[in-house]
Give the backbone structure.
Amino acid sequence: MAETGTLHDAFIDELRDAYDGEKQLTKALPKLAKAASSPELRDAFESHLEETRGQIERLDQVFEQLDEKPRGKHCDGIAGIIEEGKSIMEEEFDDATMDACLIAAGQRAEHYEIAAYGTLMAWARAMGHDEVADLLEETLNEEKAADEKLTTLAEGGINQQASESAHGDEDEEEEPAMATASAGRGAAKRAPAKRARR
Ligand code: ZN
Ligand code: FE
Ligand code: FE
């Protein structure tokens, strides 16, 4: 580090970070797919795995166009997100709850990638690396679509299904709550407090 680093140096560094992040994700996505119960969710993870392989090839092209060796540099951010995903998979959850949590983990990864590629694309454009910027934009759009797909699955039934067992036995108390309300003041006072937590 004899000389002051330039934006181009920082750019190459961030590209290596992204390259490593994608490689980590090609190992993590099959685990997410395997842990998913919803067939649509499994498909979403599997098809994003295929896309991720294409994104690695796209980065190979980017390095080539910039006359740089395709090399990764350990991405701590994605490693941390994957680590959290692993802890989720070790939890005891019912199927729908696990699916909701897997979506949460997946979306953390997608948002991280959207941030990374958004910056990379903007830097490439600013420096006049237009062809590289176009390649990065293609990947950025895939990450955004993957994120939106997960939102669609969460909001299209998985969250609702998971929420049905969200409060355990309390849900079954819903109706008798009216009956116990007339049994005494104590019960009547406690019932609304329970509802307030929802
Ligand atoms: Zn440059
Ligand atoms: Fe990616
Ligand atoms: Fe992604």
The first helix runs from residue 7 to 35. Confidence is low (pLDDT under 50) at residues 179-198. The two ends are 55 Å apart (CA to CA). DSSP finds eight helices and no strands in the chain.
